[in-house]
Amino acid sequence: MSEAARLRPIEDHDWPAITTLEAHTYSGKGLAEGPETLRTRANPDTSFVLDTGGGLGGYLLALPYPDGSFPDLTRPEAGACRSGNLHLHDLVIAPGLRARGWGRLLVRHLTAIARPQRYERISLVSVGATEGFWAACGFRPHPQVALPGSYGPAAVYMSSEIG
């Protein structure tokens, strides 16, 4: 990581940039959720941003969620859930910073902060043909978990145990 870049908790002033990155990444795939819904996917203890010193370079949103389940993309979360499973809902790296290892760094950071919080595993839904990236990060597919069409045709539920 460069000296200027750092991972830090999400602050209120980050949300416009998070929303812009999310819309840029997912609008063309029909997966953009919008600012109000997106905020409900961010547990403050397990969500953070990549601050490049000159702006927001990316973000990761994760929240406790039952194993084998996933957020409904059509509505905000109703409330907090208690679970040994942490669901990585979204990870986005700004286009100019992709393919530099930032995504893997964010996944490693999430695992490092999840362990002392006593999470047992991290789950996610791979969308847009990203299954290879997630597999390289240690996630394995669970094809028996049925996903709604709202996640797209190539969506795959995956998880990784926290060691």
From TrEMBL:
Give the EC number(s) under which this enzyme is classified.
2.3.-.-
Q: Name one GO molecular function term.
A: acyltransferase activity
Recite the UniProt keywords alphabetically. Acyltransferase, Transferase
- Source organism, top-level taxon: Bacteria
Check the record and name the InterPro entries matching this protein.
Acyl_CoA_acyltransferase (IPR016181), GNAT_dom (IPR000182)
Q: What Gene3D superfamilies has UniProt attached to this entry?
A: 3.40.630.30
Q: Does the keyword Acyltransferase apply?
A: yes
Could you tell me which residue ranges the N-acetyltransferase domain spans?
5-163
What name is this protein filed under? GNAT family N-acetyltransferase
What is the source species?
Actinoplanes subglobosus
Query: What are the top taxonomic ranks of the organism?
Result: Bacteria, Bacillati, Actinomycetota, Actinomycetes, Micromonosporales
